[in-house]
# Entry
Amino acid sequence: MKRRESGKNVLNQYPADSGVEKAFKAIGIISLILPVSLLLILIIDTTADGIPRLNWSFLTSFPSRFPEKAGILSALVGSVYLIGLTAFIAIPLGIGAAIYLEEYARKNRITSLIEINISNLAGVPSIIYGLLGLGLFVRIMSLGRSLIAGALTLSLLLLPMIIMAARESLKTIPQELREAAYALGADKWMTIRKVVLPLGLPGILTGIILSLSRAIGETAPLITIGALTYIAFLPESLTSPFTTLPIQIFNWISRPQKEFHVNAAAGILVLLIIMLLMNALAIWLRIRLQKRNV
# Structure
């Protein structure tokens, strides 16, 4: 009884319309409005600078030392190739590791250590992965400044995020569904393939696409491994040199001519549109798969 009365006394100290609650609401609203306003200002300013330059010629032309003739074809194709190859490497490894840790691995000190390290690796700055890729893929494995070296480096960056997203999605599947599948005669792999993965697929795909949308905007690890800033040709193989949209934007913004800054603004708009489309795809896939599983 004393505990209940003390709890009521604490609640009575802060009524619903108290000044403390109003101040907290005001701080929360300001904390929401301020970053959104800054983001809108940046987007509006970039759009005003880059929209006059955004046309079909800009999308289908190679970089040039003349700003009015410069385009993003090699950077755009390089970004598509790089993200496609990164997804091909990282997605199977990430989902496979998540399935093993969540469904097969025994809960002991070793798996706990692995889980802690995966969580820590997800928060490591991207330039550290660039240094790892430089030492491992470029120098030790002698892959050079190639497309495959960049894809392997970004795969290392994405693996912790994909593993964590896939594991969290698998954890949401009720244990009763697994037991029901076992009761019907299914083995463990059939239960995972027929029950667990289809139900966890919306969350897994959402995490994967959001991770890829982050990777497509990464610059630091690619510059660290030596990706080129000026390429007037398309990659022909996995060992070809490459460039990406963020690197091309970085190249233009570092030049003193104002016309190249306009090109950089147009490149930012293209990159922003790609990222928004990927996020929209993640939301659409999540809703569609959830409806199918209902």
